[in-house]
Amino acid sequence: MRLARPLENLIDQLLILPTIGPKTAQRLALFILKLPVGEVRQLAQAMVDCREKVYPCPRCGYLTDVEPCIICRDESRDQSILCVAEEASDIIAMERTGFRGCYFVLNKNFNLMEDKGLEEIDLQPYMERLQSGKVKEVVLALNPDIDGEILSRYLAKITAAQEVKVTRLAHGLPVGGDIEFADELTLRRALEGRKEF
Amino acid sequence: MKIKQLQLNNFRNIEKIELNPDNNLNFFMGNNAQGKTNILEAIFFLATGSSFRSKEDANLVKFDSRGLYLKASYNYQDKNANTTLSYEQQKGKIIKINGKKPGQSNANRLKTVLFIPDDLFLVKGTPAKRRNFLDFVLKQISNEYNFNFNNYTNILKKRNFLLKKEQFKSRSFTIVNDLFIDSAVKLLMARLNYVNILDASVREIYEKLNVAPQQLKIRYALSFPLDNGKINLETLREKLSKEVAQRNEMEVKKRITVLGPHLDDMHIYQDGRLARQFASQGQQRNISVCLKLAELESFNKISGYYPVLLLDEVLAELDSEKRQLLIDYLLKARFQSFLTSVSLDKINLSQAAIFTIKNGCLMRKE
Ligand SMILES: [Zn+2]
């Protein structure tokens, strides 16, 4: 059976999305077919807008469309506590816990088994943050896997050399799991129980 | 731990079996390819999530069926628990303990000791066989060991990768090396402690199962020399760090990790001589049987209850005198056993529950 070319094309496009298999792609495509054309246009426009306008904040790494981002411009936030995360999505999880410090996202380019060592990480922006003198404590919120552990140890050493206190999220996170998927409660508990490195 | 109820659906050649095993010895008799080992395999599959005969879960599904379902209800230390396992090609494997997907804790997990003819080479075989023996028990006993073991395997892989790529001077290597020592030391400590307990257990059993026992001794053998004296995490860490530093040149040259728990062994001595080299084949097998039984005893010493013993086709490998001694031991034991054999030839099985199995159908012999 052959599908109409545009329908087939839409299904193929949807298939590039994560967690979408052929069955789901087909169901989504058929659903889109039933929507009023105005709504479909809005959906498509939202995708394009988002992709064109949203980017990581150059100071902290949070996804933003203004510079500095809403977190960086919020003066009520505690400048003395800096949370270091691997991905911008980790900030979204941290924000849900009610954390009121600031962030730094390592735009991580670290994967030992793909020949990307610690030397590949650009630490200049991080060092600048530390050298500003405002930061009194760094909370390492990296994934609790081996690579996260290697990164944590590395950053702990560098941070301590700047005479800044280093803590890390206490275990209580699901082992081998991504921070991004930790539920709020475990993350909040982990944050409260953070230990000095 | 005693299995009170066992249910198998569409597993191998078995369409449906429901059985209430005896608390002590359960004997499954049948010709080859009739399905007797399948019952043991199902119990092991429920306990560990993998089969000891097949890597592909799909192979375990009855040929004309879409999926399999297994359930065991068991008790230990006055607690009741059950494990279910279903597998379908589309949905994959789903294991539930007491109706829930098991978390990290393995407290309610079904625990087994599997004894197959290959284990008779435990003494004679490669060091890897003896390491696997230790790891299997320790993983069942301790979540922490299980976690550390996976951690170590992972770190070792990265360490070897960096050595292979000649990156022993990179920042990553220094940190990976620290992690390597941390996790190695945890494994070593657990294994050293466990082998001490095993040593005592195996000696007791050996004396019970032998008319004229010789002196038996088991020692954990590290891949580096360890001075006599106090062994704890700190002394081990110090020693291992030193040894690693000393072998730096060798590792740089060989581009691989040359020491660590993945290269260790367990030495078994009979009258002070290494049994792997000096004991006769009969003696080696005999010690292997004792080691497997000591696996159950040591488990009980640590956890306060026994696992279930699954003994597949081992009887046929033993001479009639040793066979009867083993059966007598099992009949008196406080744990539950599941045995398979082609026949009851020359075996005196007074209080055992005997099942015959033919074409995947089970019958209890009265
Ligand atoms: Zn920002």
Which oligomerization state do the chains in this entry correspond to? heterodimer
Q: Low-confidence parts of chain B lasting 5 or more residues at pLDDT below 50?
A: none
Number of domains of chain B: 2
Strand composition percent of chain B: 15-25%
- What is the helix fraction of residues of chain B, given as a range? 40-55%
Q: Assign the CATH class of the largest domain in chain B.
A: Mainly Alpha
Q: What overall form of chain A do the CA principal axes indicate? A: elongated
Structural class computed from helices and strand pairing of chain B: alpha/beta
Radius of gyration of chain A: 21 Å
Strand arrangement, largest sheet of chain A?
4-3-5-6-7
The average pLDDT of chain A is 86
Q: Assign an overall shape of chain B.
A: globular
Strand order of the largest sheet of chain B: 7-11-12-3-13-14
Helix coverage percent of chain A: 40-55%
Biggest interface and residues each: A-B, 13 and 18 residues
Number of domains of chain A: 2
Summarize the structure.
The complex is a heterodimer of chains A (197) and B (366). With 197 residues, chain A is of the alpha/beta class.
Describe this structure in words.
The complex is a heterodimer of chains A (197) and B (366). Chain A starts with a helix and ends with a strand. Chain A is 44% helix and 12% strand. Chain A folds into 2 domains: 5-53, Helicase, Ruva Protein, domain 3, CATH 1.10.8; 56-196, Dna Topoisomerase Vi A Subunit, Chain: A, domain 2. In chain A, helix 1 (5-14) crosses helix 2 (22-34). Chain A contains 8 helices and 7 strands. Chain A is of the alpha/beta class and 197 residues long. In chain B, helix 2 crosses helix 3 (143-164) and helix 4 (171-209) crosses helix 8 (281-303). Chain B has helices spanning 36-48, 127-141, 143-164, 171-209, 233-246, 248-254, 275-278, 281-303, 320-332; strands at 2-11, 14-19, 25-29, 67-76, 79-88, 92-97, 112-115, 216-221, 265-270, 273-274, 308-312, 337-341, 353-358, 361-365. Chain B has a 6-stranded mixed sheet, with helices on both faces. In chain B, strands 2-1-4-5-6 form a 5-stranded antiparallel sheet, covered by helices on one side. A 3-stranded antiparallel sheet of chain B has the order 8-9-10. Chains A and B meet through helix 7 of A and helix 3 and helix 4 of B.
